[in-house]
From TrEMBL:
Record flagged with keyword Chaperone: yes
Top-level lineage group: Bacteria
Protein name stated in the entry: ClpX-type ZB domain-containing protein
One GO process term, biological-process aspect: protein folding
Length: 137
């Protein structure tokens, strides 16, 4: 892949993450997202994380934080399931992009599969079709 191609990909809205990996809100709702290869974070979540990191440390460690689902009712839990599935899709899309880059560098399916802990055949079957653009519907 040429540097020009990479520049085009960055400007293509389809190459942007479509949801915050932390609050699971869509980009249309959060505004700009800071993206890493496997996650994206919105301004609100980044501000919350910064506040948490900058808070003074307690003298003694407190109880471990509850898992995200502990405080949710069954309805709230069920409402979030599709968003968690969308977060999975976003990670899958990122993985496909990385595999596409590896293939663009002529790295073999065997080496890619080995790096992912799968066979050459499994890697090829899973990633041969390349990046599937996320529908913005
Ligand atoms: Zn967020």
């Amino acid at each position: 892949m040429s540097p020009e191609r990479s520049g085009e990909d960055r400007e293509d809205p389809r190459s942007q993450p479509f949801m915050c990996s932390f609050c699971l809100r869509p980009r249309e709702e959060t505004g700009v997202l800071a993206a890493a290869p496997t996650a994206a974070i919105c301004r609100d979540c980044a501000a919350g994380a910064l506040k948490l990191l900058e808070a003074p440390r307690p003298a003694a460690p407190g109880p471990l934080p509850a898992t995200p689902w502990d405080a949710l009712s069954n309805d709230e839990l069920l409402e979030r399931l599709p968003r968690v599935a969308e977060a999975r899709d976003q990670v899958e899309e990122h993985l496909r992009r990385w595999v596409d880059v590896a293939r663009g560098r002529n790295i073999s399916w065997a080496v890619i599969g080995s790096s992912l802990g799968m066979s050459r055949q499994s890697a090829w079957e899973r990633f041969r079709s390349g990046v599937q653009p996320h529908s913005q519907t």
